[in-house]
Structures are given as C-alpha cells and as structure tokens.
Amino acid sequence: MTTPRDLLIIVMDETPGGDPAERGEVSLGLAGAELIDLLAAGAVTLGGEQDDRIVPGPSADTDDRLLQQAAAALVAEAPYEPVGDWLWRRGRDLASAYVTALEADGDVTRQRRGLLSFRPGRPVLTDSADHRLAEDRLRSNEPVLAALVAAVGIRDEEAEGDTPGVADDAVDTVLAAVNDAVVELEALRQRRAIEQSAFDNIWRGD
C-alpha cells in the first residue's frame, strides 16, 4: 500500500455516503501524498531558493502504477516545478483515478442504485486487508497520514490529541503546501459563489 491509497481509504471510511472523487481537497491531498512517497523512495528531492522545487532523481522503486505515473509526470528540467504548482497540476481528477485503482484491486465496490439502473453506484469500501492496514496506520497516530487526513478536512488534527511532528523538512514543506492549496480552493469556491449570487441577482432585478 501507498500513502495516497491509505489516505483515500481513510477518507472513504470517515465519510460514508459521499463520493471522494467529487472533493477537490482529496485530490490535492492525494497529489501531496504521492510526492511524500516519492521523497521516501528517493525518486525526488526538494531544492531551489525556497526548497520547494521538485528535483527528479532516480526512477521510483515502486510497483504502484499511479506512483509510477506521478514520477513520469515530473518536470525534468530546471528550474523545476514548485510543490504548490505540482499539487494543482497532478491533482486534477486524481481522486477519481485512485477510486478506479482501488476498485480494480478489490478494495472498493460499487453500490447498486436500483434493479433497473444502468448507472454505476457510489464507491463503497470492502472489508479488505488494505482497508484494515490503513485504519491501523491512522490508529497508530502516524504523523504523515494524520496530517494529510486533517488537511483534506476529514478530521481536526488538534482534536485527535498529541500527534507527533514530522521530522523531515521536505515532508513538512509538502504538508504545508497541501494546507495552503486547500485554503486556496475554499477561497476560490467562495468567490465563485459570490459571483454566481451577483449574477442571479441581476437576472432577478435585485
């Protein structure tokens, strides 16, 4: 299992009835989780003046298809890509890709909408070994997964008690970028809602 897969399983476990692929925060968190796993594998380092540029290294030593895709999608030439830009670029529709991957591996199934419905139902976790391992990782208060779960708005990190800090500056940089991106996404949503409300008022003559 990988950190993004564990994150998605926890998101789905904590939000029954919802489709995680519909939440932009989850996709941003998954892109950050991929980068953290690539850092751990030695496939990337962070550099540049602000230590936020993703510098590709050796090929990722992983058999996970989506992590391989992430490594192949890295900007390979200087000045390289800032972490924040990576989150937005790689994160586009990433939750959907991970739901599909979990479904292919038997960790997710589709709930039927009705006997006569041909539309696929919402994704539902199965009682798999990977599901239990992800729960164990979160239950053990593993700091990276706990921070990502909090960043995407599933749990309040402070309310969970004393979570140990992350003792890696590069990982801290990624986690901070995920938090910033989530805040920016919410600001974009609010601005669009205000613009839509103003547009509706014009048509109503308010």
Write the layout of secondary structure elements.
Layout: H1 3-14, H2 24-40, E1 44-47, E2 53-56, H3 65-72, E3 81-82, H4 83-91, H5 94-104, E4 108-110, E5 123-125, H6 129-139, H7 143-151, H8 169-204
Describe the structure concisely.
By secondary structure, the chain is mostly helical. It is built from 8 helices and 5 strands, in the order H-H-E-E-H-E-H-H-E-E-H-H-H. The strands form 2 sheets. The chain has a 3-stranded antiparallel sheet with strand order 1-2-3. It has a two-stranded antiparallel sheet with strand order 4-5.
Spatial order of strands in the largest sheet: 1-2-3
Order of helices and strands: HHEEHEHHEEHHH
What sort of overall outline do the alpha carbons produce when their principal axes are compared?
A: globular
Poorly predicted runs: none
Structure write-up:
It is built from 8 helices and 5 strands, in the order H-H-E-E-H-E-H-H-E-E-H-H-H. By secondary structure, it is mostly helical. The chain has one domain (3-204). Helix 2 (24-40) packs antiparallel against helix 8. The radius of gyration is 18 Å and the shape is globular.
